Every structure is written in C-alpha cells, then in structure tokens.
Amino acid sequence: MNKALSIIFFLFLSLNLYAQDFTFGSITHDDYEFDRKKLDSTANAIVLKEFGTASIQRDDNTGSLELIFEYHVKIKIYNKDGFKEANIIIPTYKDESREETISDLKASTFNYVDNNFIETVMDKKAVFTENRSKYTRLTKFTLPNLSEGSVIEYSYRLKSPNLFNFKTWEFQSNIPKVISEYLVYIPGIYNYNVSLRGFQKLTDQKVELSKECLRLSGIAIDCSKINYMMKNIPAFIEEDNMTAPSNFKSAIYFELSDVQNLNGSKTYYTKTWKDIDYELSSYKTLGDQMKRKDVFKDLIPTITKGSSTDLDKAKSIYNYIKKQIKWNNYYGKYSEDNIKKALENRSGNVADINLSLIAALSAAGLDAEAVILSTRDNGTVNKLYPVMSDFNYLIAKVNIADKSYLLDATEPLLPFGLLPLRCINDQGRVINLKKPSYWIDLKASQKTSSSYILTGKMTTDGKIIGTLTTHTMGYAAYSKRKEILRYNSPDEYVEKLDERLTRIKILNHQISNLDSVENSLTEKYDVEFSINDGTNKDQFYFSPFFINTISKNPFNLNVRTYPVDLGAASEERIVINVILPEKYQLLEKPKDLAIALPNAGGKYLLQTGMDENTISMNQVLQFNNAIYQPEEYPYLKEFYSKIIQNQKTELLLKKAN
C-alpha cells in the first residue's frame, strides 16, 4: 500500500472509530469514580458521554422522507441535588397532519453494590406523555433507584417529518459534560446553512463521504458524513437579566437552504427578503388584514373625536383597541382568522390585536406598518437570511412627523409607545405594504423610574411615624399596576401589603393614577415602624437602608459569557428625612459613596448625615444602559459588592449631654 493510500485509509478508519456510539450498559470503574474536579468541583452531576446521530431516510411504508435522530447519554450523579438530572423530558412536535414519534426508549440506573454494578431497568409503565400545547407533546420519565453516586443512562430514537431544521444539537447544558459528540449524514441533494452558536468552540470536526446513504426513485445518493465533537464543556449557568438561553448556549443549528431535485431543478427554502415581503403582503392572515381599513372606517370619527393632532388620534385609536379586544394570551405573527372577527368577539391573539391597530391607524390616515419580531424567550432572529420560523410576534409601528412609535395593544397597563418587556429583543423587521422591509432596533422608549420619599418623626419610645410617597414610571409602574389590579380593590392590595410588611404598619393610604397609565403611579402611605426596642434611649443603632435593601449580589458567576440585559435603563432614588425627638450626636454612619460604572454606564450615590436634629439619607442607583456586554460583567459584580458592603453599616446615635 503506498503512503498516500495509507494516510487516506488511516483517516477513514480513525473517523469510523472516532464517530461511534458507545455500548448501552457498559459501565466502568472509571465512570463510577470519575473525579468531578477535572471539570467542576461544585457539579451535582456530570455527563460522562453523550452521542447523537441524525440522518434523512425514506419511510418504506409511506415513501416519504423523514429525519431519524438517535440519542444516547450516560450521566454520573454525585449528590441528592443531582437527582433532578434523572427527570427526563423529551419534547416532540406535531400539527394537524404530521407528528414526531419516540421509539426504542431504554433507561437504566447503575449502582455499585458489593463490588458489582447492579442495573435497575426502568419500567416502561413509568413513561408517560403530556400534551403541553396544540403543537407540543412531552415524553416524561424518571430513572429508578437513585442514590448518591449512581450512573444513569438512557437512549431513544426519534422520527420527525421536519427536514427544514434537521436536528439542533446542544453541546452545552445546565451540567458539565466530559464529551459530547454529534454525527450527521446529510444527503448531497440537501444544502443546509450550518451555524455554531455560543462561547465554547468545537474540539474537533471531521468530514467524509458516505456512499449511497439514500436511494430515491432507484437513484443512489451520497451523503456528507460530518462528526462534531466538543470536550470538557462547562455548565451553562443561567442568571437573571438575560434573554433566551438558546442565544448563548453552545449548540449547532441547521437551516435548509435548497434541495436539488432529481429532475435537475432546484427548490429554494432560504428566500430573500424581497420574496418574504411579497408573500407576507399577500397573506390573508397578515398583509390582507393590514389593508382592512373598511373594518374601522365608520368608527374612526367617533374614536378620534376631540383629537386635534395626529399623535392624539394615534393615542385615541391605541386606547380604543386596548379596550375593545382582549388578548387571549397567544402569541403569533398571523391573525387566527381575521381582524373583523376578533373585533366582533372582542378577543384575539397578538397579531389579531395589533393588525387591528394597524388597520385602524391606516383608516385614520396615519402611516402605520407592521413589525415582526422574536420575543425574549424565543431567541434572536437570523440576520443573514430570512427564517420566518424565527419570528413569533407582531406589533404595530406608526410614523408621525419625524418620529416613530412602536405599539403593542395587548397590555392595557402600558402607556403609548412602551412595548412589553417580552418584545425588547434585539431587532424586528418592519413590513410595509408599499416598500421593502427593513430592520429596526427594539428598545424601551422610556427608562424605568422609581422614587421613594420618607418624611417622619421619631418618638421617644423608638418609633418613626411619617409618610412614605412613591412615584414609579415605565416598567416599574407597569409591574406595580399589574400587582395592585390582581386584587379586588386597592384597599385589599394595601391590606395584603400591610400583612407582608412585618416591621412597618400602614395607617392610611392613597393611590393615584392607577388607571392613568400615561402618568406616573403615585402611592402615599402613612406609616409607623420601630427602629429600636426602646430599652436604650441614650444610644442606639438605626439602619437607613430599609427601603429596597440590596442584600444579595445578582451577579455571582466567575465569568459570564453572555450579556446582562436589563431591558431598559433605570433609575431609583430614595430620600429619607427623620426628625429626632431630642438632641443626638452621630457617632457612626455609612460611608458616603460615589461610584460609577465605566463608560458612563451608571452610578451609585449615597449621602447620609445629621443636620441639627434631623437624620437624612439621599441615595441614587442609576443604570444608563439597557444592555451590558460580558466584558463589563466584572464591573457590575464589583459595583454591587461595594453597595452591599456599605449597606451593612448603620447609623449610631448617642443622646447629647
């Protein structure tokens, strides 16, 4: 054998040895004794081996092509907190005519007892299915006979009619992995756009030709046999203030670009935005509904009566739609039926409501467009080429003079121009019936603002009696209004609030602008609370940080590989002024602080003091950005650490002689 052939043979052989599933039940001492310190000493469980394979095959019974996906994993459990990894959920998808199916499911738990590995096979009766929604079914099971140190293993086969997305493979999950390997066979007639997301990189990737892997109409078709491998993968830890984890987990995605037909023609699945614009503008459930000015033509004079400007008209129409059509809690970029029916039934999905808003704005002679987007929990959209399945939501855009307003009429408690936080996710695509579509940034139109002002007097027995006034705007006001309106009345809300506040007693209250969502929400409470037990009136400690105390750092990772996404810029101000009953000396107090984030990203200001017989505190917490990049994470972490440390200090007061 010559040298060149030897190398080719060796590469072929090594790939075949490399890309192989492992034998079910072949538990070794190395598996059982695997030292988690090699990956993560704090891990509750670790994936020892994970292997998957996917291919397109012809169903002999129906003659149709289907995706066959096989999955196999072996997991080491270290403690009781790791037991949850034995609760398995496999989602499958279905529609009116097609569905994914699970078969060949095997699952076992292995324990080391008396120098032997004892296998406990899961009873098939332990497997059950749940219809999560119209399109999603969940297969659920739990591995049996768990104990600390167990090794669990399961495998299954999935058949799917969905060839467009092939099968996504997530290398990264909530627990570390020693090795994760994915082998795919893609017929030469199929052309997929393949993308690797996430911070982690592939350890290895190998490609070879697999001859005659598929036969169609008597014609043999070769496949690309591709093996993707990643080793020593850290767990993906979710923290607050992030969009969909799928945006950041290391995973490989496939999207069908085109198919070479056997007759020589080609079918394109990845279309241009020009193609999409034409399709959407002519869809009965989208473009046609945007044109339905007739539904609102006779209503507009009444709706906009008294509106002197175009902005006033837009606000009147926005408020009308919010009141007339109640959201049924379903997302969607297409109308379920048509907007006339939604208006008659006074109920509809997101698209029904916002397409109605667009049609009504247009009927009033205003320039209205549609914006399709992906919500925060749905992930970001592909910008390189249109993938309509990426989008799951539709809002309205109205252009007045030189300003544009993004509107979503599904939430009655949001002011004009402020989108629900779920919509604040990168960019959306503006659909205009007369000109090409384009991208637009999805940003909060106003910052979240909260202020707390406490003025009061301290009595000789250590109580403070005073008035606490709060003003909130933006998402803070929305959340507070939503919370208040869960109760039958504001009085009932305050009653429950009083029960929750163990230290503070609410004596009286007044809530203003509860229904006036364009204005700040104002709450005024007459309060009474104790700062000491009265046993030592000559000297006592008093903490001024009893309003929105920051006691826990929201950022605890050593390294965060994805952005901190707050949704909107924010500002919180707290002012406290308490008059003392007698002359006191201030012996100790929290350090006055003025710290800032880099690049004017935010600041924290604190001043405490005593002027004659009045204790005062002024505090400002400000975040000027909605999004902070991973490289800014250490600064945020340190920022909060300094605030928390400082808020542990109290005022020490001593009666003056």
From TrEMBL:
<protein>
    <recommendedName>
        <fullName>Transglutaminase-like domain-containing protein</fullName>
    </recommendedName>
</protein>
<dbReference type="InterPro" id="IPR002931">
    <property type="entry name" value="Transglutaminase-like"/>
</dbReference>
<keyword id="KW-0732">Signal</keyword>
<dbReference type="Pfam" id="PF01841">
    <property type="entry name" value="Transglut_core"/>
</dbReference>
<feature type="domain" description="Transglutaminase-like">
    <location>
        <begin position="299"/>
        <end position="380"/>
    </location>
</feature>
<dbReference type="InterPro" id="IPR038765">
    <property type="entry name" value="Papain-like_cys_pep_sf"/>
</dbReference>
<feature type="signal peptide">
    <location>
        <begin position="1"/>
        <end position="19"/>
    </location>
</feature>
